[in-house]
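[Meeting: bench + compute handoff]

Bench side (C.D.) handed over the final construct sequence. Compute side (W.E.) agreed to return the predicted structure before the next meeting so the bench team could plan truncations. Sequence as handed over:
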Amino acid sequence: MKTRMLVQVLMSWAFVASLVGLASADESKERIDWQLDNLKSVGGHPVTVVGEPVVIETPDGKAIEFDGVDDALFFDVHPLAGWTAFTVEIIFLPATEGPPEQRFFHMQEKGSESRVMFETRVVDGDRWFLDTFINTGRDKVALYAEDHRHPTGKWHHAALVVGERRFRHYVNGELELEEELDYRVQQDGKTSIGVRINRVDWFKGAIRTIRFTPRPLAPEAFIGVEG
């Protein structure tokens, strides 16, 4: 009798372990990584190039550099389409003496104003802070972190996290601001990197990696952060 119970327990543990393994595999498949290492395609999507952005070498791989005047990339894809919750991470270098307002990463639903955006504000030429923005189609929420300033000319990690009716953003793994958000799922659309989709507020600096995960992540799971 004891032997039979032990076998059943072991089988149950094995079944649970297999489910965990499948979940991990599914999460890995659902995660999307964009490496900005060329000007022809990113994440398997063809790129429309505006201006003359340049592929550069960095200690951690290639990146794309933007001049803050007329350099940008455009894609006919919305990487967050259909997702109810998500984490978007970006590893980037805001240049010194860049424009004061830079809408450097913009994802928008086709035919609507619903969008998700990363922006920077440059202060005194050598400091910047993160401004993230979501328009749900019903509500508009901005996380304007003017009290959290960072040095320009260095690589940073920024993350925008949506889930559990909250909208949070982090810089270098540190939570800066959060607000309540009743997020509405967005559908197919467009993306721009280096400028807002309507081609205003250009970005000066470099971008190396963007990662999209279809769930809210804790900071210890971020890329580019210790752990």
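W.E. noted at the follow-up: The helical segments are 2-30. C.D. will use this when planning the next construct.
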